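Support case: user asked for a sample of complex input and structure output to validate their parser. Sending the pair below.
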Amino acid sequence: MIRVENLYKAFGDQRVLQGVTLEVNTGEIMIVIGRSGGGKSVFLRHLLGLLRPDAGRIWVDGVDITGLRGRALDRVRERYGVVFQGGALFDSMTVFDNVAFPLREKKGRRRPGEIRDRAEEKLAQVGLGGAGHKYPDEISGGMRKRAAIARALVTEPEIVFFDEPTTGLDPVLVNAIHHLILDLHQKSRFTAVMVSHEIPEIFEIAQRVAMLHEGVIVEVGEPKVIQESANPVIQQFIRGQIEGPIRVT
Amino acid sequence: MNRGPTATLLRPVESLGRASLDVVESLGRFGFFLGEAAVWTFIPPFKVLQLLQRIHFVGFRSLSVIILTGAFTGMVLGLQVFLTLSRFGSEAFLGPAVALSLIRELGPVLAALMVTGRAGSALTAEIGIMRITEQIDALTVMALNPMRYLIVPVIVAGLITFPLMTAIFDVVGIYGGFLVGVKLLGLSEGTYFGEMQTFVDMSDIMTGFWKSLSFGVIVTWVCAYKGYHTGHGAEGVSRATTEAVVLSSVLILVWDYFLGSVLP
């Protein structure tokens, strides 16, 4: 379980997180929604240990990661898989090498044959069986996202973070990526934390949804609960209305 | 809130203080970056493949520019020094003059400047792009230390390749001077190399060696640091690249002066 309590973060005068509190249960898909620039990615980077909060605490399965550094933090990260917004594939490596990279470099070295089999299996699972020899700049945006998902999952992590994994894709690909994540989740039962603003598609895959607005989680619940929420912020956001409590800046 | 005339008068002092603190802070970060890289250099597992790739990138791929600039530097030296020495009837000292200029000063400095222009800028851009496309963050969250993977191989490659590049620059430059002084202007071959043997000793070679070694650290350190801490977007990478080249070049010349004053 991931537990976040009263997380605060400001960059200069800009207060991004103003007391975020959230619990993510083991094995569930939690999707954090909120408007662009609303601090979703900043929140995610705190869970990854890439940013340190000004105040507040984050526990991952009972371990307080807020003050962890170096090897202790790496031990927590070894349980993570991360899909970055742009994929963050290593552009000097082929797609296959990108997927095989975490296996080659992580502790408990595996035989080359085993690494190859697992990387190929993961590429096949995301529908990139024949694209392993290509470089990231030779494949489409959708393929890059799928390659990033394959790389994040190849080590069979317990917790997978998705930072807007469908941004910039067409609706068909958005749907395809979401169903791929759902399918992989059903096979591996990892805990997933995803930040996204793909409304209404995310309601099909999320087990719970949290709305981040003005630095705080305004509501958490199952997709149906969120969709039927009386909170005007949530209603304005999921309907994409211009008028309402969310100011368009 | 009105802070009164005293506060207004003190504002420039406040700005100066803040700017000074910023400078001290960035110098601290800069030094800490090198210190961290130095520590990771000795902690296994060692990234031998990455090191070889960096040696190829920083060294081997700079070879053509080093040979070209070395040859022409030696030829220009040969021509100008010959013309100057001939006024005093001392053409015989052309060999040592060319060799000492190259080995002690021009070889290390010009080779370092050339490698900065060719490999240092590319290095900053490469690491900077990795930063803005979250590739460095990807390494971090894979629990793989980016210092060990990206920075240490670059700095160690600088330590290995800069002295080698300098040696090649020196040798090619000496033969450039030979071509002009001996083959074109008629100085005897024996005089050119014989006087060189008499006047150039091991301390001169070691001076050049220590300089090139320290330039190797300076260039890779500055370029890697600027790339690692690049700003946002393409503009950030572009600014980091420019700053890396300018700062490396200035530090090479400043450090050359200090080492030149200290070393025998």
